[in-house]
Amino acid sequence: MNATGRLTRAPIDSAALLGEIGDPGHGAVVLFLGVVRDLNDGRAVSGIEYSAYEAMAASELQTIADEAAERCPTASVLIVHRLGALTLQEASVAIVVAHAHRDEAYQLSRWTIEELKRRVPIWKREHYADGTREWVDPSGRAREAVTS
After folding, report:
1. Domain residue spans in the chain?
2. In degrees, to the nearest 5, what angle opens at C-alpha 10 toward C-alphas 6 and 12?
3. In terms of Cα–Cα distance, which of 138, 136, 119 is closest to 58?
4. In the chain, which residue ranges form alpha helices assigned H by DSSP?
5. How far is CA 142 from CA 66, 124, 131, in A?
6. pLDDT band for position 1 (50/70/90)?
7. Which residue among 49, 105, 114, 132 is least packed, with the fewest CB closer than 10 Å?
8. pLDDT tens digit string along 2-18?
9. What per-residue confidence (pLDDT) applies to 138?
10. Is 101 helix (H, G, I), strand (E, B) or coil?
11. What's the whole-model pTM score?
12. Is residue 82 within 8 Å of 100, Cβ to Cβ?
């Protein structure tokens, strides 16, 4: 079992992450990347800024990775979440799950992203093409509009 959860300010390198989790006993490796898209709720997005209560977020990411590995002891789990300003198509989160079988890897990957969204104190502020910015909660509703 290998379980790691961490924050980063550097771009997420999916090839490097896949190299971290390799194990000859794993026949399935699922890589999930959440990337910045150009449209949200009908508004053109130009980028996103992620911030966090870093000590708590890092701890909770590790806890989720550990819990995922406990749910499936033969799996390896790696979670990386980006902080700072991101442009379109940059990865904000990566989840890599390796297991002997694909069904378990897919299920554990889905469980992991849902727990991350529900529990980790990371916030995003969307930057829109019209120059406005808004903090967005995990359910997708805007909290506060700020003009640039």
Report:
1. 2-147
2. 70
3. 119
4. 14-21, 54-71, 102-119
5. 31, 10, 15
6. low
7. 114
8. 999 999 999 999 999 99
9. 58
10. coil
11. 0.90
12. no
